[in-house]
């Protein structure tokens, strides 16, 4: 099945478990779009669609004992929703960077979804590592499909806009992520690769977006911070540009911050922790 751990979730009170073949799932989505009766509740259709997308994107979908690829759905579903509504200003600021909120949602969803596949006896940071891998991968996947270019220099895991001076990566923040004016900082110190790529960044908030009309590339991050609230996972998030930061220091000074409302996922299986690496940053010797 696509979402490992959903059978365990289904054993919790109030859950049921269903399997649909890709063809059946596709038919459900098509019937919903045509406002025709569906075998699932209205709020389940999006969950079916997202899981169908996962099946289609993976080269070899897992199968049942009968050899049928399946789409897993929980009832109530692990829904993704904004804690508060996004504003026109949110959308406008993201558009300046060539981004849409659905780009970010898909990346965060992919990471949260991957957490459930961490084996119970795996490393304690396994869920966080899977989250990072899939968050980076899905973010680059959706943006490359729209003309962006993947950047793997020094194994940084970035993506570059085709025309705007914007390079985007991912970063794990702290509990102040998404709160404007609060002291946001990265969870880890940055190595020489990321430090080098921040050298051309702005040094204060008063240059907001002016630099987008120059030819100097700026490094931005999708900053996230997951934490558990009861049976739900809340992901704090924002898109931010750090000021140039020396190697070996955490990032705690920011030129620009686009704070966004949290994403709420739930109900979830029993959590195994939210810790994990936010990026891979290898030690290299930079040439002058």
Could you characterize what this model shows?
- By secondary structure, the protein is an alpha+beta fold.
- The chain has a domain at 101-204 and 215-267.
- The chain is 27% helix and 22% strand.
- It is built from seven helices and nine strands, in the order H-E-H-H-E-E-H-H-H-E-E-E-H-E-E-E.
- It has a seven-stranded mixed beta sheet. A two-stranded antiparallel sheet has the order 1-2.
- Helix 2 packs across helix 3 and helix 5 (101-115) runs antiparallel to helix 6.
- The longest helix has 19 residues, at 126-144.
- The radius of gyration is 20 Å and the shape is globular.
- The model is unreliable at 1-15, 57-77, 205-215 and 278-288 (pLDDT under 50).
What is the structure about, briefly put?
By secondary structure, the protein is α+β, with helices and mostly antiparallel strands. Helices cover 27% and strands 22% of the residues.
Write the layout of secondary structure elements.
Blueprint (H helix, E strand, L loop, with lengths): L5 H5 L5 E5 L1 H12 L11 H13 L13 E5 L3 E4 L5 H9 L4 H15 L10 H19 L4 E3 L6 E3 L5 E7 L19 H6 L20 E12 L2 E11 L11 E13 L22
Parallel strand pairs: 6-7
Antiparallel strand pairs: 1-2, 3-9, 4-5, 5-6, 7-8, 8-9
Helix pairs in contact: 2-3, 5-6
Low-confidence stretches: 1-15, 57-77, 205-215, 278-288
Summarize the amount of helix as a percent range: 25-40%
Give the N-terminus to C-terminus distance in angstroms: 50 Å
Physical arrangement of strands within the biggest beta sheet = 3-9-8-7-6-5-4
Q: In percent, how much strand structure appears in the residues?
A: 15-25%
Global morphology:
globular
How do the helices and strands follow one another from N- to C-terminus?
HEHHEEHHHEEEHEEE
What summary fits the major beta sheet? 7 strands, mixed
The number of distinct helices, counting runs of at least 4 residues, comes to: 7
From the alpha-carbon coordinates, what is the Rg to the nearest angstrom?
20 Å
Could you give the count of β-strands?
9
What structural class do you assign from the helix and strand content?
Answer: alpha+beta
Mean pLDDT: 75
